[in-house]
Amino acid sequence: MTAQPLSKDVLRADILRHLTYTLGKDADHASHYDWRMALSFAIRDRIVGPWFASTRRTWAEERKRVYYLSMEFLIGRILEDATINLGLRDMAAEVLAEAGQDFAVLAGEEPDAALGNGGLGRLAACYMESMATVGCPAYGYGIRYEHGLFRQRFEGGQQVEAAEDWLTQRNPWEFERPESAYTIGFKGEVVEKGGKSLWTPGETVIASAYDTPVVGWQGQWANTLRLWGAKPTQLFDLARFNRGDYTAAAEPETLARTISRVLYPEDTTYQGKELRLKQEFFLTSAAIQDILRRFLKNHSDLRDLPKHVAIQMNDTHPALAGPELIRLLTDAHGIAFDEAADIAQACLGYTNHTLLPEALERWSTWLVGNILPRHMEIIERLDQRHLAQNPTRPHYVGIVKHHEVRMGELAFVTAHRVNGVSALHSDLVKDRLFPELNALHPGRIVNQTNGVTPRRWLRMANPALSSLITETIGAGWESDLDRLRELEPHIEDKGFRVAFAAAKRANKAATSNWIKDTTGITVSPDALFDVQVKRFHEYKRQLLNILQTIDEWHQIRENPNGNHVPRVKIFGGKAAPGYAVAKEIIHLINDVGTVINNDPKVGDLLKVVYPANYNVSMAERLIPAADLSEQISTAGKEASGTGNMKLSLNGALTIGTLDGANVEIRDEVGAENFFLFGLTAEEVVERRKDVEHARHAITASQSLQDVLQMIAEGRFSPTQRDRYHGVVDRLWNHDYFLVTSDYASYVAEQGEVDRTYRDADDWTRKAALNTARMGYFSSDRAIRGYMKDIWDIGSAL
Ligand code: NBG
Fold first, then answer.
1. How far is residue 360 from each of residues 120, 247, 355, measured CA to CA in Å?
2. Could you give the CA distance from residue 115 to residue 686 in angstroms, rounded to a whole number?
């Protein structure tokens, strides 16, 4: 099953063969691009063996498969990750060096596959890699967006978005499968005939498959990520063309392709746009049709479906999976409605990723009825059936209410398991989001705390620390992350701590150079690297961080000879294009940075760095260089976080609230190795009951008054002094996310961070303990949890 051993000669020959015959290039004239493509094809060749072997075994042993339905897969680059998983990284580098090429340079030129916005999409990518590593037979189903998440740049400190174009270059990782295509219908009408409902769609498009193999650690197993591209059912209107109507002739094609053209850039707000609903159904219908076709190849009784099929809905975006499966079971295969609903439920699981009310999808019944008339009928019938089965259901609970289809309730009712993504979040899903449904269905809601893949996020991103770990505890921790605990006794050795600190220092030095190259800002690798990288959202409170930065600047100016710990404040992240408040915070951070970075009184004591266009590749660069991880969301708002796990795993200490997985991270690494501050989720609810909470918090803190005063005066926007009046006004009057209430304890805890950092050896001990105790947060553990508690599936390895 493992990848065949490969000699250097064979790899070299493969690369040259691809250069010559796949790219049509003579080695003497080949560009970086050509070499990267040739290398990628040669690596892909080595994945095909394990991929075929895995597929054959799954068929032969009639194994159950997991189908992971997700509107987002935030993959990043593939080349280096796949090469490392195959154990070919060093060999590939040597072969290329002999040809005068640098592996790292070539790998660094691969565009990120940015088919996702943030946490939800990156989690899906980690889970695909872990399912391949632990030998869980699985398909990921998603959309092959032509344009992934927008590219961000700053103009005058403000975010400007541009289209992203990863597919303008050839994508060497995918196999186009024109033969795997399904018709997806929209609109039209439903007619009753002989007790049967017949839906005749008014519009159709083709969903056409593109397969990317995903190989696990050491090439022992590989699964498929199947992304659907939209194509027209009718290619070209020749009659119109012949009449001279050239633009109109291409119209059907343009319209169809729109469906897989672009990823919606909102991660936590839902817009109710028709095209988005069409995208969701496009993915879901293609996936369900594909699942049934595969099942029916060697089974005939659809009642056995749950024995062979587990379908996971990644958030509510694919929540039409239930209605679509029921529709096909009833309308196309003649199964009675109730039985079809039971079969669907036994197959389906639903993961909730957020409690934010603005993120919960609710489609108007008018829109659903218009775009998917048959599904609207099925949804209403499911709602009635649920009420009939649960007569005590309160009148205000249900799938269809106030002329809206509530996708959360739909997903809950159609699934046999519903899960949250951290212990705290799962409790809140029970108590705050679905209390009534939880009472009717005790035990349906379970927890699966998120995880991250240590192959990409430690082994690949942090070779310096990875080598030290392997030297210290031996190989194999990459697929058995609990083994990091074996580091603990070594942390008491001075020699180990020196080596640990040296690895961090090397990462910081490399990142300092990169910061200089990308932003022009000079930073010292000896300063404390304080990192907040994530999407911009009010609840994540980048604003709190920049307020504290202003306070720090103020302290330095007031007392330039004080005992200040030099810091580099590093920000990274994008705001949804329509999210004005988040964009204003981005602008403020850049404005504050301009003032601080050019203040001669400050020098190396404080820098603010915000490189544009944060993405997976930038995360791989920044996370290994971080000393401090900012996880400062308003408690009760961050479902889990996964960046928090990556940073701690790479030896950063966290400053954070008791929110999401921070709670469990702190339990694992030890309270003494974590900087805790702020209100708890329960205190947050209490605090909001005081309508004057912000006024009370501000008047109690001289430092906060000073900071707000400086912003209001225009100290950071001298050319437009009132630029941030809105920001200051909101803090005084509408501080829903309790920035002001948590300010004082945050600033105090940052002081504790400084005191700890001054004792470099103690800091290193704490950092190393973070790494050693993060084994629990491997996505392998998370996937094994899903396999056991939700999917009821065994490993094939
Ligand atoms: C995000 C949450 C994060 C969580 C990830 C993955 C969405 C809608 N939600 O806290 O905000 O870590 O999902 O579960 O992206």
1. 14, 39, 8
2. 39
> What is the C-alpha to C-alpha distance for residues 760 and 770, in angstroms, rounded to an integer?
15
Split at pLDDT 50, 70, 90, the class of 240 is confident
Choosing from 83, 642, 657, 764, which is the catalytic residue?
642
Q: Which long-range contacts (CB under 8 A, 24 or more apart) does 30-34 make?
A: 32/101, 32/105, 32/106, 32/109, 33/109, 33/169
Establish whether 64 is a catalytic residue.
no
Query: For ligand 1, atom 12, which residue shows the shortest CA distance?
Result: 641
Q: Which residue has the tokens 């040669």?
A: 42
Q: Would you state the pLDDT for residue 195?
A: 81
Specify whether the CB–CB gap between 315 and 382 falls below 8 A: no
Instruction: Assess whether 535 carries a catalytic annotation.
Output: yes
Could you give the CA distance from residue 463 to residue 80 in angstroms, rounded to a whole number? 12
Q: What is the pLDDT of residue 5?
A: 63
Tens digits of residue pLDDT in 673-701: 999 999 999 999 999 999 999 999 999 99
The pLDDT tens digits for 279-296 are 999 999 999 999 999 999
Contact between 456 and 621 under an 8 Å Cβ cutoff? The reply is no
| Known catalytic membership, residue 353 | yes
**Over 90: is that where the pLDDT of 519 sits?**
yes
- Closest Cα partner for 14 from 43, 34, 36, 50? 43
Read off the DSSP letter of residue 570: E
Give the β-pairing of 138-143 and 113-115: unpaired
Q: Identify the residue whose C-alpha is closest to ligand 1 atom 9.
A: 353
- The span from the first CA to the last CA of the chain, in angstroms, equals 9
Identified catalytic residue from 646, 666, 765, 766: 646
352 Cα–ligand 1 center, Å? 9
Token pair in block for residue 661:
């997985």
Q: 353 C-alpha vs ligand 1 centroid, how far in Å?
A: 5
Cα 639 to averaged position of ligand 1 atoms, centre (Å):
6
Q: Check: CB of residue 143 under 8 Å from CB of residue 227.
A: yes
Is residue 461 packed enough to be buried (19+ CB in 10 Å), middle (13-18) or exposed (0-12)? buried
Q: How far apart, in whole angstroms, are the C-alpha atoms of residue 533 and residue 518? A: 16
Q: Which residues contact 630 (CB under 8 A, 6 or more apart)?
A: 530, 531, 532, 545, 655, 656
Residue range 333-351: mean pLDDT, rounded: 98
Distance between Cα 421 and ligand 1 center (Å): 8
Kindly name the residue from 36, 122, 353, 766 that is annotated as catalytic.
353
- Any catalytic annotation for residue 537? no
- The DSSP call for residue 634 is P
Residues 147, 444, 490, 540: which is the catalytic one? 540
Burial class (CB in 10 A: 0-12, 13-18, 19+), 388: exposed
How many whole angstroms separate alpha carbon 340 and alpha carbon 360?
Answer: 27
Distance 182 CA to ligand 1 centre (A): 31
pLDDT in tens, 556-598: 999 999 999 999 999 999 999 999 999 999 999 999 999 999 9
- 8 Å CB contact between 329 and 340: yes
Dihedral, 134, 138, 139, 140 alpha carbons, nearest 10: -50
Tokens of 89: 């990284």
534 is catalytic: yes
In contact, 202 and 187? CB cutoff 8 Å: yes
Question: φ and ψ at 260, to 5 degrees?
Answer: -110, 25
Query: Best substitution site from 68, 352, 353, 777 to test ligand 1's pocket, by max atoms within 8 Å of Cβ?
Result: 353
- Which amino acid, residue 702? Q
Nearest CA to ligand 1 atom 13: 120
**Ligand 1 center to 701 CA (angstroms):** 33
Is 522 annotated as catalytic? Answer: no
Alpha-carbon span 778 to 452, nearest angstrom: 5
Residues with C-beta less than 6 Å from any ligand 1 atom = 118-120, 123, 267-268, 315, 353-354, 359, 421, 450, 638-642, 660
CA 26 centroid distance within chain: 40
